[in-house]
């Protein structure tokens, strides 16, 4: 497989053209699998170099690998990490490596429903090609850039109500407009003894009633 080399690696001009090979001296092998674009290469680069691979997305071609020695309970564990190509056309390359993997990190992208739906197919494939005792972990990658708590904090700082919505799924969209309309209605048509409308309280209550999280 010496001809198999990642375009990512070639594009960045680093790494070696040696192809991964499992042997006792190469330690334990960890393989990253999952749809194209879920962030396998970025996860590996983050783990190995502590950096985020910014810039345009270059799909992995074939397979790539990096070594990393970790100290676990005072014991040195050498990991050889294989970064596979998620694209369908490289599936046969990936299949060839499954058998030698000791652990599989199976990724999906939390912002990409299809990558999550495909996990079943990945697991079926893993069942078929990997060792029976392979360690499998499912990773939902790509944490949202702005946490809910950050939004809450900012809203509190400026004394404005806060809620998260999803124009895509429709989550809380109706509620956002209803809450604004209720506030407006109370301002213009409030009875003298009627208590002030508490917008945030209303929103929080509605979300609790809906039995849902706040996102
Ligand atoms: N916001 C965000 N973007 C990410 C994250 N991880 C990866 N990305 C972006 O997702 C895109 C794909 O990342 P890659 O790591 O190249 O994806 P891959 O799974 O290796 O893709 P293939 O090589 O085609 O299998 C890139 O544009 C990254 O910048 C993450 O944690 N958060």
From TrEMBL:
Record keywords, A-Z: GTP-binding, Hydrolase, Lipoprotein, Magnesium, Metal-binding, Nucleotide-binding, Prenylation, Protein transport, Transport
Enzyme class, spelled out: hydrolase
UniProt topology in membrane: Lipid-anchor
Enzyme Commission code(s) on record: 3.6.5.2
Top-level division of the source organism's lineage: Eukaryota
Compositional bias per record (Basic residues), positions renumbered to this chain: 1-12
PROSITE patterns: RAB, RAS, RHO
Swiss-Prot/TrEMBL catalytic activity: GTP + H2O = GDP + phosphate + H(+)
A GO CC term attached to the entry: membrane
Cofactor: Mg(2+)
Region (Disordered): 1-28
This protein's record includes keyword Transport: yes
BP terms from Gene Ontology: protein transport
Cellular compartment(s): Membrane
One GO molecular-function entry: GTP binding
UniProt biased composition (Low complexity): 13-28
Keyword GTP-binding included in the entry's annotation: yes
Family in the record: Belongs to the small GTPase superfamily. Rab family.
Name of the protein in question: small monomeric GTPase
Organism phylogeny: Eukaryota, Metazoa, Chordata, Craniata, Vertebrata
